[in-house]
Amino acid sequence: MPTLQAVALWLLLLCALPWSLAAQDGPPPLRDYAIDVWTSRNGLPHNSLRDIAQTPEGHLWFATWEGLVRYNGLDFTVFDRSTTPGLRDNGVGALLVDRSGGLWISDSRGNVTRRSADGRWQVWEHRADTPQVLIQAMQMDSHGRLWLLYEGKGIASLGPDGTFDYQAPPADVPLAMSFTKLVVDAQDRVWVGTLDGLVVRDSDGVLRRAPESFGLGRGLVWPYRAPDGVMWVVASERIYRMQDGVPLLQHRLPGATHITAMLQDRHGDLWLGTENQGLLRLSRHGLERLPAGLSLPGGRVVSLREDAEGSIWVGANGGLYRLRETLFSSYTERDGLSGDYVRTVFEDRQRQLWIGSARGLDRRDAQGNVSPVPLRNNVGKSPSVLSLAQDRDGDLWVGTFGDGIFRVAENGQPRRTYGSADGLLGGNIRAISIDRDGVIWAGTQKGVVRIVADRAEPVSFPGMPTGLTTALAHDAQGALWIGTIEGIRVLRGNRVQAIDLEALGGGRSVFGFQQIGDAMWVSTDRGLYRYQEGKLARVGLEQGMPVDTVFQLIPDRVGNVWISSNRGVLRTDMAMLNAVADGRAARVEVEHYNEIDGMANSQANGSSGPSAILRQDGTFWVVTAGGLSTVDPLRLQRFRERLAPPAVIETVLVDGAPLHWQGSNHNTIPGGRRLSVSYVGLSYLLSERIRYRTRLEGLDKGWVERGQQRSVEFIGLPPGEYTLHVSAAHPGGAWSDSEAVWAFTVEPFLWQRHSVQLIAALLLLAGLVALYRYLINRYKASNVRLARLVQEATLDLQTQTVNLQALNQEKTELADRLAVQAEAFERQAREDALTGLPNRRAFDEALARDFARSQRSRHPLCLVVLDIDHFKEVNDQHSHSVGDVVLVEVARLLASACRDSDMPARTGGEEFALLLNDTRLDEAAQVCARLRGLFHDHPDWAGIPDLKVTFSAGLVELDAADRTPMLLYQRADRALYRAKSEGRDRTAIG
């Protein structure tokens, strides 16, 4: 039987447990919330949001001056006067979700619209006896009456039967100065806020000011009813809680004189929106304001709403804002750090946190106070800190970018500096490690040094690296692991072992070491490597890591492994990493965190150390390019255990046309259509990371993973009954039990109906019988016709044979005539039509041929170009016909004077040429002289007495300077003109 003391102790523990759990699960300080912002640039139709509501299925709804907006976490859908269904007016005043999940919408012209849970819309337009003004607020009482607050015009109620009861304000009630707050309490009393005090409609139905005994005063006073039913009243800077019908002062907020919105969240904390001082919170952390850099833009906070996941939505005049808890917290310059570009972090034995950045070193004490450490380089500036380590005496060793190593006491006072005068190699000190004997080892840009007796000496054993050192670590056996941009070296005593990473996955640059058990894990530019019992294994991109380059691996105390990278922090578990490294699993499952999860910057830093640590309290800290980020692994479980997002179907399109599927138990769709279904998981935390799966009963045998795809399409579904199931899940979380389900029927085509198919089968059978008989008869007739055709064809073939023989004879004769004509045409193409001599084309071809042959054989070649003297006078005095006869006689004389190997030609009107093969210049001159004699001795040219015809000629012989036939011809032509200029009737030699 337990003792009295034991029972007392057990009761004490039971009483203390809820308090401790509540303290652990309570909300973080306001500074640790992330703020997301949406404006008209992000899809909102207007930046002023008057009200916010969330319907039971999870959609968020926003009231704006340009319509009603629905939000699913990714997309805004606007309903206004231009849409179907649409609103009577774009200016939306207030929103209210009733007990059955219907959404009530009021507008600026006194209309009220209700959207039911199944998507049907119903409108109550303003009546002649109700004001046509903005309905500022709506609330529903216990009888289902909807109470409406008309701007400056009083109140009204809309009964469940659709009846309106409008109540204008009495003269002494300041509803002409009404504020946007109306509340119905548990006794169905209506409370209205105004700019001149609080107004109450009591059970007697009379509107009157709140009793003076309340002590609320005049000015802006308005009511708020919390989700737990408690009534609150805000009056100036005071906040009252109604208890037993009397307001009791709970908070006084000096300076916050214009509180415009209020929200009590699930933790009981009060969120307060103001006119121009942003957002406040009253919580266990006291009165909190958003820290510098996180404040909302100026302007009134109009509405506040806590969604189903605990995020706080703020509707302001400048846009929509959301505050959400994040897994990570971050510290930046606004928290006292010297710089946001943090390179290294270290926790000493006194639980002080040392933070090295590009702008110096900071020390954060156990109470969270941050102070800079007064380090100065030789030009009086704070050095850029790259590495940190603590020795056995408690001193901190600080490696810098180009400024050597600083030694700092635990109280932050510098002791001394080590530089090149102390033997330290130049460059960057990116890593420092202290062995079990207390020796300081430092990685420099020129290799590794160790500091002994206040002197730095290079470590120059054979095989030691001499370039940039990026990481150092001593293992449990005392060996020094050295990371470089060219792989790993391990120093054991005075022997150096090289470990080749490149052969396994291509790793080269090493950024960090972490010993876990008997294995050393290495972070590189090609993922993680594990060195264990002399064997190397790799877990990289091909094994499921989302990035190549990782900087530091840190295991926590609850089985997680945290890995920093250039693209955020990765989380997996140690057992999975080992399974992949052992080959027992193909891929590692990794969760990926970045700015969305509260990190100051998703770019973690490497090539410095330590770049991530696990503190003594179990929290993980990582340096980034935008500050220092931290996560408590114990909070991870709460984040991972959040409810899976409910899936909803948003649109159904049939051949691109919308289908009204809501509110119908079953839809019928014609066969052969293209069916597109869009869906979404209604979570507003990491909405873009939600995973989906679908299952179409009647087609799929199981679930089909869709990844982050938010729609599915089916084309040409066979006729039948179908039910589509959609489920959603957070990354790494369970699938939602709240599935989206839609049942529908695909109708068969006319030809797919059984009755139509039976009739078609009978008609086909009858048609086949008729076709068979028709074919038999046609076969018989075809035999008779075929015999006749064969006989006729035989006779025709015989006739064709005779004709073909005649045609063949004609073809032969035609071919012979064509050959003769072709020969004549070829001759005419190269023969002068008047003289019968070769023409210019034939002469050019012969000149080119003989020119080439003479160059090859070195045989002589002469060319004579001659022109009939005064031939124009012959034509002018005796006619062109006489001139033609003269040309014919000249051609005859030329031909008679030539040998068979020579070629005379007519090259122009009265121009001729003579090509003399194998003829020297003197022999050619004799030919010209003989030809001149023939001209002189020729009597009666063209039958005309006393008509004398002479010629002038240019004679040349081929020599080495004549590189082309044209050059040879031009030289002869120049000699011809010289003969003419010297008096004609002569031959000039060129």
Automatic annotation (TrEMBL):
CDD domains: GGDEF (cd01949). Residues 859-990 form the GGDEF domain. Its EC number is 2.7.7.65. InterPro entries: Diguanylate_Cyclase, GGDEF_dom, Ig-like_fold, Nucleotide_cyclase, Reg_prop, Rev_trsase/Diguanyl_cyclase, WD40/YVTN_repeat-like_dom_sf, Y_Y_Y. Residues 1-22 form the signal peptide. Keywords: Coiled coil, Membrane, Signal, Transmembrane, Transmembrane helix. It comes from the Bacteria. Residues 790-828 form a coiled coil. The chain crosses the membrane at residues 758-776. GO terms for biological process: cell adhesion involved in single-species biofilm formation; negative regulation of bacterial-type flagellum-dependent cell motility. SUPFAM superfamilies: Calcium-dependent phosphotriesterase (SSF63829), Nucleotide cyclase (SSF55073). GO terms for cellular component: plasma membrane. This is diguanylate cyclase. It comes from Stenotrophomonas rhizophila.
